[in-house]
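User: Can you help me understand a structure? I only have the sequence.
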Amino acid sequence: MADRVSIRKRKRALLWVRRTAIITILMMVLSAMTGGAMIYAYMDETPNLNEDDLRIPRSSMIYDMNNKFVTYVAGTETREYTPIQDIPDHVQNAFIATEDVRFREHHGVDVRRVFGAALANVRDGFGSEGASTITQQVVKNSVLSSEKTIKRKVQEAYLAVQLEQEYSKDQILEMYLNKIYFGEAAYGVTTASKTYFNKPLKDLSIAEAALLAGLPQRPSDYNPYVNPEKAEKRRNIVLSLMHKHGFISSSEKEKATSIPVKEMLSKPAKTEGKYEAFIQQVIKDLRSKGLSDKEIYEGGLKIYTTLDPVIQKHTEQVLSSDKFIVYPNAEFQAGTAVIDTQTGAIRALGGNRQPDNAKVQKGFNYATDSKRQPGSTAKPILDYGPAIEHLKWSTYKKLKDEPLEINGKEFKNWDDEFHGDVTMRHALKMSYNIPAIKAFMEVGDKKAKAFASGLGLEFKTLYPSYAIGGFNEGVSPLQMAGAYSAFGNEGIYHKPTTLRKISYPNGSEIKIENKGKKAMKDYTAYMITDMMKTVVEEGTGYSARIPGLEVAGKTGTTNLPEGIDEKGASDSWFVGYTTLYTTSVWTGYNKTDKDHYLTKNDQAISRDIFREIMTLASKNKKTKPFVKPGSVEEIYVNEDTGTLSKNSYDSNVSRELMVKGTSLTDVVKPALKPKKKQEKPKEDKKDKKDKKEQPKSEPPKKEKKKPDDKKDKEEPPPPPPDDDGGDDGDDGGDTGEPADPPPPPPDTEDPPPPPPDDGGGDGGGDDDGGDTGEPADPPPPADDTTDPPPGDTGGNEKPE
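Assistant: Let's start by predicting it. Here is the structure, written out as tokens:
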């Protein structure tokens, strides 16, 4: 009985296995048939081979925001075609060893190479081999798009086999060596030889041939002028491959490896490039979308960008000439970024002060590559923005400006003074440091870090000195423009980009969508904007104002490194915006020392640059004012009493903002009630009794003056406003962070005396624009200066 049961179970199991196997085989056959049909369809759609496309390099082209051609990605291109018989064998072998060692054996597709590429990259170093053959690369760079799809791979393999049937190996290698891009605007191996070594192709050494063979994989990263260490490491990999495959001997390899790359190079050629700073960012953005350098430089792409040629051209003229601003010397540098406030589209980039229309060596891009401490431009991002967002502070929020010590470090203001209870608006307007640090401490480093992250600024950790711009690692003008644009866009952040659309030679397109994300509440964006309007209208940003435009912005400067006893700054910033454009400007020197630092007058240049660029950018364009959202309420506060006022026109009444729904008692004092001793009935009785003596002593008149006299005695001495009874300043000095790591030094300012009134205009030498035209207010002081963190000189950075 037991045997029969076991037999039945075995039969059922075998039946299940058979059925499963049959179903699996049927599915595989069906998949093969379907896959075969798909492959056949892909092959049927393959474009035809064209000899001109195969031989002539396909340079990618850049178009502006109006879809007009601007320039080639490589700038002004240089190329020279050389027949294969004039290309030395060791040059050919360098490329074959690196790109396709079985080139002369396979028929277009190397099946072994596909599986061997992964192992080779691990064994010989990343990049030692790729999966595509030289034949496939010629096809891909000539008639196909660069998209990474099965369809493109099938078509590439199919055309590679076709190419091998129609052309000889030497003809295919000739096409390849004359098409590929080597960097520095050089297409083809002959042009590259002259560009990097200033010698004809026939005179190249083995070491020089190996250097060139290593460039096409990533010409920008391996550029020997920019990254000589990377280029040398890459060259040595090529030499190892040449030796491994028998193209050179051990002694030849050792001799070539011993030559430093820097000693091999000729002096960099001076090329003429158009809008160089902007084009550099286009290439970065393309790489961030997954495009390789081969695709970017050799793919024949049409790249539609956000470039505004009018603003770009004017930006370069402002930076590179003295027509608009008189610069102190030729070594003085600047970087600026102009973006669309609503979309994050980059309209212009000013990378440095070298003329763009002159033949010069490509320079460092201070708009995107520079990482400098931002000074007090950090305050809206790390201090007051998070405080309004999370604590719903009003712009009238009082903070106590008093001596402050954290972890043994004393913080101070730029004027070495403490001003008692000041409103948040006034603290930002005058760029006081103590209130900013207290705001940062009260909101907490975690919330401040998250707020900054929403604006595109990432920090591993935050210390109190970050509240006033004392960063361990700096920021670029483009990053700051992106962050500030969200304040002018109702709290929506768009990552700055140069790209709109990419078109491939086969007609396919990729549209770039730059979707925004909510970085803050609309009340935070508007209230910060309103406070920064005060900075421009009355405070440290006064000289950046533009007649007829609502401009919000913030200044920032950093202290000189230790050992420099001069009065000045390492860096000067101005970041400002309207509802149309956001512009960020940095000025300073590549290296700050006793002979190269920003004087009092130099520190105003960042604001002058902003004003000149924004004036032109906004010309003949309707710039809408900032609109107050329904989540914000306006209130009017009597600055003498700290109470609400119905009369908004009095000189001692200020307009403030609060988040709708928050309690008024948290913002202002309760209204004062009238006192009974001042009531008229009592005064009338006394008048009747003393009516006869009234002409002599006039007691009624004397009685009426008493309340005013008392009020005068109760008024606090300047500076106003009066304390609201709620100290929201120091909370014990606890930042909510570990006390172990000492914070970097704080932001301090040492402004010069206020300049004389400039009659409402602004000159290059004004510090903050002089008199505001309001008799009750003194001219605004100079901006802040930030101490660098430990080990950082706050302006001594070298470009990498």
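Now, to help you interpret it: The chain has a mean pLDDT of 80. The chain is about 35% helix and 10% strand. Let me know which part you'd like to focus on.
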